[in-house]
Design goal:
Blueprint (H helix, E strand, L loop, with lengths): L2 H20 L15 H21 L11 H6 L2 H16 L16 H22 L8 H18 L15 E6 L5 E7 L2 E5 L7 E5 L1 H8 L10 E5 L1 H10 L4
Parallel strand pairs: 1-4
Antiparallel strand pairs: 1-2, 2-3, 4-5
């Protein structure tokens, strides 16, 4: 998916989030974000949208520190989500995706943020749907790209994260595979950390499922035993990964 496709999909996800938020009380617990309510998830997402919009608008060469204000907290609502999301989409669409700027992931360009904010919004929309006891649905191409972004960006930031830095081993290999298509990610653990590739190889543990089910599993939004996924091999290796790769 390219920059414009990500922007268009982000616009759809903002609407989906706002719609499901409208159907829930703000004090409803969101079990996939422990300790958070619907209000907390919405405040977080709306603040992230406004932060990313500022970064892109300024083509900031460095990280900008931004926190929610009391005024923003008082404004949290489906409309507040929609307004912030619409502004973010407009800023992204008005920017050259190849412009260089700060990003915390691999791609130090504007296009990082259209991709990142699509997946950020998607994941939190699923959080609210799960809180509403709905079964999340995601377009296959978007779910596959969300997995890809998650894994390869985590490889980049692993050295700066206390939990990710624990993901070391002695050559163990784990694979996430999309059922019925030729798409997989292979993770190798060694003494220096872990690395991610898309190369077919032997494995000690393999998780297989549809794009959305694999995405929910690796983001710890759905327990392995509750989802429609198949695990082959070493459950402890998979649990080791899940324990140290939390993603809010």
């Amino acid at each position: 998916m390219d920059h414009v496709e990500n922007c268009n999909a982000l616009e759809v996800e903002v609407t989906r989030f706002s719609d499901v938020m409208s159907s829930l009380p703000l004090d409803r617990d969101v079990s996939t974000c422990p300790g958070w309510t619907v209000f907390d998830v919405a405040e977080h997402l709306g603040a992230i949208h406004r932060w990313a919009e500022e970064l892109v608008r300024l083509r900031s060469p460095e990280r900008i520190v931004r926190e929610s204000s009391a005024t923003e907290r008082a404004a949290v609502s489906p409309k507040w989500i929609s307004d912030g999301g619409e502004l973010l989409v407009a800023t992204l669409l008005g920017a050259n995706p190849d412009d260089e700027m700060w990003a915390w992931g691999l791609d130090q360009h504007v296009r990082f943020w259209s991709r990142r904010q699509l997946h950020e919004t998607l994941v939190h929309r699923m959080d609210l749907e799960l809180a509403a006891q709905k079964d999340p649905r995601v377009e296959d191409a978007i779910a596959i790209d969300a997995i890809d972004e998650y894994l390869f960006n985590f490889e980049r930031v692993a050295g700066h994260s206390p939990d990710l830095s624990l993901l070391r081993g002695h050559g163990e290999k784990m694979t996430f595979r999309i059922r019925d298509v030729d798409t997989l990610w292979s993770i190798t653990f060694d003494e220096d950390g872990f690395n991610v590739s898309s190369t077919e190889d032997r494995f000690d543990a393999e998780l297989i499922g549809s794009p959305v089910e694999v995405l929910l599993a690796i983001l710890r939004r759905r327990d392995i035993d509750d989802g429609n996924v198949e695990l082959i091999g070493d459950r402890q290796l998979l649990d080791f990964w899940l324990t140290h790769s939390a993603f809010d």
